[in-house]
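Hi R.,

Here's the chain you asked about this morning:
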Amino acid sequence: MAFPKIVRPKLELIIGLQSLGAATVAAELGHMGIRDPHMRGPRALMAGKCIAGAAMTLQCMPKREDLVEFGEHADPEKQLHRQVLLEAQAGDVVVIDARGDLGSGIFGEMMLTYFKGKGGAGVVIDGCIRDFPQVKPLDFPIWVRDVTPNYHAQTNIMPFAINVPVACGGVLVMPGDIIVADDDGAVCVPAGMVERVVEAGGKHADWEEFTKMKLEAGGDLRRYYPLDAVGQAEYEAWRRANPLKR
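And the predicted structure, written out as tokens:
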């Protein structure tokens, strides 16, 4: 079974986005005209994780029993929630439009164990997983709305297509877009904007390091966040005295 392929950016760009985190990435995208890249609903199931990776997408649709019984559910080779993991590469993030459904556990212990072992970066699901008591010890990065004991096509939805545009948490995600996710939530970076976001976010993170140092020492918020003309001059002098290490 053949599925559309995605183009993955250079590893250094992925690492650059991961180092910025979701909040900085979302802010920079906002400055560039992407008003709201935050996927509402999916929340970090395992606290303290920060990931970035290319999006492999899975689209779910309302369940139609004739298709489930005689197609997707009957033959494991047609089970698209399995196939998206088979197609994914190490470092990818699987993004699933599960329609916000709270009664279908798209993945469980075995599927997530497989994807972790394959080197997957994580999953973002506008819906649920199952087997949480067994999944929790995996310590694998997962963003979901909730957990459920039900399996993937038990109730109202069924996997329908791989590597097509999906709506996840109200955000359009194209196959190959880059997902950045941490405890703030999951953000979608359009593939064509990755380099710009890394460059702008790096500059932002740099002056914020200086700003945080000044604010911790009791500096004036009006001078240092954002930098006014005097603060900017101080920052530039500080940077010359403390050059970045490349």
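Helices lie at 11-31, 65-72, 80-87, 109-118, 132-135, 194-216, 221-224, 229-241.

Let me know if you need anything else.
M.
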